[in-house]
Structure formats: structure tokens, C-alpha cells
């Protein structure tokens, strides 16, 4: 596997092997009656996706697709669902064995991470009753984290809801507690979405939507992230000269596609060439975009001219197609300027 990697913000369905969704209206899903559904709202200030669960009262969490656990700020007088103090679990408990923890401590000390800022803190693993959607979940495990870990999260959020590939993530705990399969999906739009699990075999969507899905396997890895292979990248059907194959990490906390620096430069060059062939003119970048194009056309006409990006997955027949407003956004600071939803990171 190549060392180069890129990270993509996604609209996806997960079964601990990934299904990709086209952009459907959230209301169009014909969900099973036994599904647990968490409504999601996109915070306009941070572009983070926020949902809530009940722990005595409604608590807002930022959705972290690859997060290993659920963590909550317990330093602001937060109490248990019964109104008493939260009880820290001992390090020798069965519950603690499910977590990456400090084995030298008497209590189950874990290490919650702010997936937005990358800051890690020491916290306590606790157990209590919560309500997820319409379902009460007893002996639900989450980490109590210090208040400073909230920095960088959407206003009003008190923690992060991890959906990652661990025994302490929300999907795993629902599977163990209420008998749901280790199957969940996330549908995110520019304004809202849902996170849902269910206990029905087969597709949650029914035959019509299921036939339109694209399937690709996840890469085995030792952490909680969801990672896929990308064989190549094409722009308007023309291959981009990058050192493929690549690996891509799926994320809900980064609002923009993030690429290793050399891949980003090659991609931008190819994208610009394709855009200019469609009469899009590159202009001075406007924050937060690194690459911008100007247009005298209407917004809809400009978006229709945006080059098509294809991420080729396990074969030429399986592609993740990114078009129009999924790859560019209109600047709020300058009318008629469209920015590419991408940025460089590191040197690989």
C-alpha cells in the first residue's frame, strides 16, 4: 500500500464495510419501523454535524465518524441520569477491558480526543443509562472529559459522538445492548442528515435505493477510522498523475477534502486545466478556499461547468463521482467566485 493518503468528507452508508449513497433527501428514506434514528443538523459556523442523545436532559454532540468512543464534558456539574454522581469504573472491570486505557491506574482512565483539533486529554470511563433516539440504553459507556476539550466544537456541543470501529463506539454499543446488527448508516446533506441503526437483515432502504448504491470494502487497520482504497483519480474522465493506489480516510469533522501536499498540487493543476477548458477563470483565492474560479454566469450555470471528479475504487466499474456543488462552493465574500473544496496537508 502506498504511503500517500487523502481524506474525504462523505455521504455514506456503513455496515463495517462501506456503501456509498448518492445525495438523497433525508425525508425520502423509507426507514424500518425498528430503526433508531438520530437527526443531525449542520452547524453553519463550524460546518460540524451535531446530534443529541438524552442523558437526564438533551445533550448535543458533534458527530465523529472515526471517533473511538463517546465523550462528554463532565466538569460543568453534569450528573448521572438519576441525578446522582457519575461513578468511575475500576481499571479491572470488564467494561474497562473494551477501552484503550491506562493500565497503571486504579480507575479506568481513557484518552478522549477532540477529532476537530486533535487535542487528547485524560478522562474517566463511566457507565449510565441514556436514551438514543426513542430507545433507552442501560449500562451505556462513555468518557468524562475535561471542559477544555470542548474548544473548537460547535456552540452548545458538550462532547463528541464516536461512530468508529471499536467496542465503545455508538454502533457497537447499540449492537451489544439492544440487539441491533453492527450496521449503521450516515446520510449528510449541506444542512441536515441522520444517523441510524436497525435490527433487520438486508438493506434498510428497500430494493429501489439499494440497487443504486455503490459498494467498496474497508481497509483493515488497527485504529478506529474507516479507510478505503482508491486506485486512481480522474477529472473529466482523464487520469490524474498521482502515485496510486491511494488510501482515503472517511471523515465527518473536516469540512474539506484534505490531500497530501504533492497530490494536492497535481490535482489542482489537472482540475484547473479542465475548468479553464470550460471557460472557468482562475482568480485570487478567497478564504477559506485555496483555489478559486470566477464566473460571469449564474450560480447554476457556473456549477454545471465544474469538472467531474471520479475516484476509482476497486475497479474501473466502481467509481465515486463528485460533481458540481459537491466539489466547489460559492464564496460568501465575493459574488461570482467559486472555491474548490480541498486543501493540502503535510508532505506525505
Automatic annotation (TrEMBL):
Gene3D superfamilies linked to this entry: Acid Proteases (2.40.70.10)
The Peptidase A1 domain, residue ranges: 49-348
Keyword Transcription regulation included in the entry's annotation: no
Keywords: Signal
Signal peptide extent: 1-28
A GO biological process held by the record: proteolysis
Signal as UniProt keyword: yes
InterPro entries: Aspartic_peptidase_A1 (IPR001461), PEPTIDASE_A1 (IPR033121), Peptidase_aspartic_dom_sf (IPR021109), TAXi_C (IPR032799), TAXi_N (IPR032861)
Family the entry assigns: Belongs to the peptidase A1 family.
Name of the protein in question: Peptidase A1 domain-containing protein
Organism: Dipteronia sinensis
Taxonomic classification: Eukaryota, Viridiplantae, Streptophyta, Embryophyta, Tracheophyta
